Amino acid sequence: MPPLSIACVTETYPPEVNGVALTVAQVVEGLRAQGHRVDLVRPWQPADADRPVAADECLRPGWPIPRYAELRMGSPNPLPLLARWRARRPDVVHIATEGPLGWAALQAARRLGLPVCSDFRTNFHQYGAHYGLGWLAGPIEAYLRRFHNRCGRTLVPTEAMRQTLAARGFQRVEVVGRGIDTQRFAPGHRSEALRAAWGVAPHERVMACVGRLAPEKNLDTVLRAYEAARRAQPGLRLLLVGDGPLRPALRARCPDALFAGTQHGEALAAHYASADLFVFASLTETYGNVVPEALASGLPVVAYGQAAAAELVVSGRNGRLAAPGDATAFIDAVIQVLGDEAGRQAMADAARRSVEARGWGTVVARIARLLAEEAGPAVGPRRPAGSLGATLPG
After folding, report:
1. Assigned CATH topology for domain 5-179+360-390
2. Is there a common fold for 5-179+360-390 and 187-355?
3. To 10 degrees, the CA torsion angle through 312, 316, 317, 322?
4. For the whole model, what pTM was predicted?
């Protein structure tokens, strides 16, 4: 495949810590490693104050997202992108997030007649229910549908997500999957010294959950499962890796839990591998990168049967699944896994094997092929230049 010139637009990128930022970085770095030129467009971050801006970066003004102060929304102004892409026209625009900056990129690309691919990465319309904004779910979903249907195609991580979006009127949706760094996340990173620092004896078990400590992660179910399992295993410990607005309330409710805060790189890998079971009760994920990370680290996973868990976890083999929203079944699954040590160990061995072949190279190559197809003849009729602004909010 000839090298592509790709403009990649994202509202979040490392050093910000979240699944979207880390996944987009894997794709950008992977495309560059495969010889493609990627011009990265993202909001300015405080960490940028101490470093020069690279020629292949376009930093736009950004503002903190309410209740997510560590994340930023980009400017909705399309004019700088129009000027940048007129000066150096990309073959294709890849929009990773659907926020104000993504909208500006879509508007600019359509005015210039540039082909566009988008990612559907975050269920914004579902998050509102956890912040008293459930009444906005309909308008937000309508916006997302209009946004993505104005792109040549929309990329999603699972077949279940493709079917869900198609049933809601989203068009030209394609599955690309997600990769996992099996070198970074591996059982070999288990640290007895770290477990000793947690105050955990060799025979005691650690139940881990990694992610933002926020309402949309459904941590009440995690704590209920821990409390129920601990009645049978008094030495069980709960490890929460991450930070967020619920931390004070969670600490007050469960003072004996291990609050590790946000972890990165080798430290994050060690926290995964030093646990014995991974639990994930979120019902708002489009994928959930923590699931394959836990499996690669050799942890059985208990989760609801949706998103990444539905694709990767086989009940009784490398973890257990509960029907989405069935908290009783979720809690019972945790108790079952922790109550059978031989079975838990067999699941741990199978967990690693179940994701060993899911490297990022294959996923990035598929994304590059889809972008190349979009960069060729236009798919479907294009709306007249300038018409987008009348249909999407400015």
Report:
1. Rossmann fold (3.40.50)
2. yes
3. 10
4. 0.81
